[in-house]
Amino acid sequence: MTDKISEFKDLLQRAKFVTFLTGAGVSTPSGIPDYRSKNGLYKREKYDFPPEYMLSHDNLVEHPDVFHDFTVHNMYFPDAEPNIIHKKMAEISNEKGAIVTQNVDKLHTKAGAKNVVEFHGNLYDNIHCLTCGKEFDYKYYLKDYRHHEDNGIIRPGTTVLYGENINPDNVEHAVEDVECADLLVVVGTSFKVYPFAGLLRYAKNDAKLVVINKENLDLDSEVLAISDDAVNVFSQI
């Protein structure tokens, strides 16, 4: 494993543009649960509806109280702090690259990263009433999902819910960052959620690909696959 980390470190040093593609596993060391692992959000307990419905636009509109309770107690971690993975990625991407993340926790930005595409949006920006559009601070949303001036439902941020389309600007910027990279680094994601998982098809033919994930993703044999804790890996680069 040490040899692979050394190879990764060498690739980072030689790369001209590094694009990190990140998922929930990057934020679990900061105390934020992932989704699909055996201890993840989707498997921790029984819900009234399937987890995908709990985080859907339909649930937001049809059962706003259920949606609010689930979201507030399972998705918001405002006191979470960036870990070594976020910090190292911020340092590298600010110098020569970008980060495209599935995460909605804003920890990449909190770590100081300037070139971040939040592919699925985030939970903290543009929290607004679906009736009148008035914006609210996330702290208000943690307490109430109703805008009492017009009884409108408050939507939590720019997060893309199940049943909604990805923001076209996010897709465009993510594709550009993948196309620019001579080194792509996939970290902490099962790579099963589309269209995020399809971003690799925009990579240059000669781009190097590194995957850092506890579980094998069964990608091309030429990929440098590091089956290790990402905290351990990024602590050594």
From TrEMBL:
Query: Does the entry feature the keyword Cytoplasm, yes or no?
Result: no
Give the Pfam families listed for this entry: SIR2
InterPro entries, alphabetically? Answer: DHS-like_NAD/FAD-binding_dom, NAD-dep_sirtuin_deacylases, Sirtuin, Sirtuin_cat_small_dom_sf, Ssirtuin_cat_dom
- The keyword Nucleotide-binding is annotated on this UniProt entry: no
E.C. number, please? 2.3.1.286
Keywords from UniProt, A to Z, are: NAD, Transferase
Any one Gene Ontology MF annotation carried by this entry is: NAD+ binding
Residues of the Deacetylase sirtuin-type domain = 1-237
- Protein name in the entry: protein acetyllysine N-acetyltransferase
What species is this protein from? Companilactobacillus nodensis DSM 19682 = JCM 14932 = NBRC 107160
